[in-house]
Give the backbone structure.
Amino acid sequence: MKLKVAWIGKTKSAAIKALTEEYLDRLSHYSDIESTELASEEALLKMVDASKTAPTLVLLDQRGRQLTSEELAEMLEAHQVRGTQSLIFAVGPADGFTQQTRHVANLVLSLGKMTLAHELARVVLLEQLYRGFTIIKGHPYHRGG
């Protein structure tokens, strides 16, 4: 399974860039992963349309479904077992995704009820994806109950 993490907008903070790279490196031990900085929602939709096989698109949006870390791990594992070829997680612009883009998504996922800056949401997403893979592999990183 190819895992893609896309975000809309330029990364301004050096700290965010460093954390993004750190978690992308960690994730590369568990999955084929790629990250993409996009200029707009339209660019995201074009990326989805340009895929050879229909990818599974997961949008991050505070109005989405909330999962525990364990439930996210179960979702990742289910996609691995199912043979999903491409799983795209997308973090939107500061104002969130349009209804049109939300309609295209296979899942709209929330990181919680609190509003996060979109750059911080990306880092939280990457950490949770990493945590999910460590749960699947039984790695001690996740000690939750």
The beta strands are 2-8, 32-38, 56-66, 86-91, 107-110. Residues 2-137 form a domain with the Alpha/beta knot fold (CATH 3.40.1280.10).
